[in-house]
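HOLO CASE FILE
Compound: FE2/S2 (inorganic) cluster
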Amino acid sequence: MNAETPISLEQRKDKLQGLGCSRKRVEDARFTQGKGNYVDDIKLPGMLFGDFVRSPIGHGRIKSINKEAALAVPGVKAVLTADDLRPLGLHWMPTLAGDVQAVLADEKVLFQNQEVAFVVAEDRYAAADGVELVEVEYEDLPPLVDPFKAMEEGAPTLREDIADKTEGAHGPRRHPNHIFTWEAGDQAATEQALAGAEVVAEEMVSYQRVHPCPLETCGCVASMDKINGKLTIWGTFQAPHAVRTVASLITKIPEHNIRIISPDIGGGFGNKVGVYPGYICSAVASIVLGVPVKWIEDRMENLSTTAFARDYHMTGRIAATRDGRITGLWCHVLADHGAFDACADPTKFPAGFFNICTGSYDIPTAYVAVDGVYTNKAPGGVAYRCSFRVTEASYFIERMVDVLARKLDMDPAEIRLKNFIRKEQFPYTSALGWEYDSGDYETAMDKALKTVDYQGLRAEQKAAREAFQRGETRKLMGVGVAFFTEIVGAGPVKNCDILGLGMFDSCEIRIHPTGSAIARLGTISQGQGHATTFAQILASEIGIPAEDITLEEGDTDTAPYGLGTYGSRSTPVAGAATAMAGRKIRAKAQMIAAYLLEVHDGDLEWEVDRFQVKGNPERHKTMKEIAFAAYNQAIPGLEPGLEAVSYYDPPNMTYPFGAYVCVVDIDVDTGVTEIRRFYALDDCGTRINPMIIEGQVHGGLTEALAIAMGQEITYDEDGNVHGGSLMDFFLPTAVETPTWETDWTETPSPHHPIGAKGVGESPNVGGVSAFSNAVNDAFAHLGLTHTQMPHDHWRVWQTAQRLGLTGQPAAAE
Amino acid sequence: MSKMHVKMTVNGSQVEGLAEPRTLLIHFLREQLGLTGPHIGCDTSHCGACTVDLDGKSVKSCTLFVAQANGAEVTTIEGLAAADGSLHPLQEAFREHHGLQCGFCTPGMITRAYRLLQENPTPSDEEIRFGMSGNLCRCTGYQNIVKAIRAAAAEMAAGKEAAE
Ligand code: FES
Ligand code: FES
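Model generated. Tokens follow.
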């Protein structure tokens, strides 16, 4: 009765292309042929193009705006200012962090390149001509760019709109430029631990302002259909469903009349989580003009206005015994949030998950406080390829541990091994309140140290330092060791939400009569290859080959509600939803199979792609047969069809970890720092697709290289932004990028249905520390404990100069 | 602004159109000809997402006026597959070796690599890295791109030998 040619169990498994195989990506066919469909590829009849007039100054009052000349440009259709948006109540918009942000500058400008007016024209050239001709008169106000001066008495008040509010979204405000204070841990106990400690090391560790800079900038096409009252927005959205809800709340258009579509997205890395003025202005323009309006940022607008990351200034004190047991950790962060608090964190976490800053170590007591302040800089504070503020936290602890090791004259690897949370301590509750799900840090570290021959590297470094001392070389060798623990997969709805939207995710599956399927998710891929990997999860769960499963995401009219893709949450949350929905399908399939085989449900067992009668595998029904039966047989007590939906609220976050080692050679006379070797061991739990994991690690490490070795957005004292173009903002090319060595261990998450933890962001989190530790290590024997990132040639050269390595070989002693 | 008449050969076909002389080649290709394979990542000549082949050279089409391309022979990613639809070895190799993630840099990368392998059919890894340094990728870390180009070079050399 089973007509298919019998094939072996192994062949049946291989055919599925399920969990653990390096399935080639289904997305690639269109991308390699130039057939992707990104936002800027969308062209609708009658579509207009919008472009911004931006503030040339960092802080000032708008005295007048004259649109006349712009409106006279052929092709210019409209010029919108705050006054035009005011009657609609759309001149300000809520931010994800509970603040408000001006959509178009309302009386004041608060950062250079802030949106002041929106010119809509027939094409982008006419729009640009119009932008040139909008005349805006400003009165200069003193810019505030140094976050350390933000709360000084007499500091200029930036946010006049909330100047009198003593209560912010996250508690009391002490100063007009103060946003919040956020604390975790036991302050008194920590201070006591520090006071009584045998050794205390202190450092101020800054993590500079950077930008995710995906290769595609942000943009959208808004199209209001006046006839059926439906607003459709195609856009670079990492969280399309949340955008729909927010758009509905602020425009008052009912949610069912808004359709948000994220088409192919050219990289996100956190940049595309937020809601930006361009989206609102395009939507308003489309509503007013009755035709579709496109808005696409250029690169300078992208770097200088949408979504900076980091800008955390972390003062730390770490206490230990003389033999290197860490006994306490204290940290104060000054967080520069720019002109509006638009951080993309879960709402109850104004500093994200920064309290993961005890890292991979068993630290008995800790305390952290974060103060957020306003400055005349662009808003943002997004999670640039990391879970919320986790890379800042990880960088902080990994530098502090190294600083402590120097003070104790201990080896950085040894001090880490000594303080690791032990395997048997999991699930482990940290002093700052997280419950780590699983880990085996020692095994990972040992494997890393062995693979790179750590002892050999230290011996070589010693010899190299002696040769340097003798004047035989002008190069210093540095070895950076970093061990990180991430916290990803936000998150349990009980404590994680964004503007009240719980951070669950979802998957909906329909099995077709002929045994193929479609699955839709609440997430959206930006290069992670969801269409490939989620089909693999499903293939293993429901026994249908991955190639027969279509994956769809990103269209709010068809996909189930979900909170989107960022913070490495797709695999931990949507991946789990996928597995759970698959299990629901299987449960129904089992009942159908039982009916067909005329046995009890309980007499059946699942094997790869079929249910078979226990002890009699000859009698079975494949998923394909079951699918057909679901649509053509009247089964008593069962509805026809075979579909399921799962909304997954994770019981906990997941905690991926890893051990990284970086070796650098620094030319002290030029500051040129060569990455000789970079080894990355990642443990992301169950591995779904090793090829894609490796690709994610390569990409994350390259972003870490960029951050640690060169990226920085600064402001001069007049409030001018520097680093706002690819001329100044470092993106490594293939030449600067080393060849990465990757490795892994596999410690499944105990609470995730398939044990997967997420990997996309780990290499960025661990990588930055490893690079920075390597550069610091190169100079450690000369008394250097910490030097700030980015470690570009100029800064490294300056460090060498400061340490007296001034071009002449040191005389042999 | 008055428009000029432009004519060029794109992916083997004669095309013509009216465009303002200041129109950038990338906008002419994408918006007038509907060839949305080449992308815009920076419009300042840094990223290479807009790379096309122009008279046998790789150019960044965001930095060329359409007027400058008048009469030229242009190849974009859309023109790399063979007439029978079979993919170019580079297109195959990028998929095979996971040389792309979000895909935004990919058309420019492949178009640049296509020219690189004509300039140097047997490049070393270092020569590949150098030859591709005008094209930025934010996702892959380049390692698999280098691998893909190396594999395509070998494939093309083998194909050539077989043909001889
Ligand atoms: S868009 Fe042409 S080089 Fe970036
Ligand atoms: S694949 Fe995303 S930029 Fe290269």
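CASE NOTES: Chain B has five helices and five strands. Residues 120 and 127 of chain B are 9 Å apart (CA to CA).
CLOSED: yes
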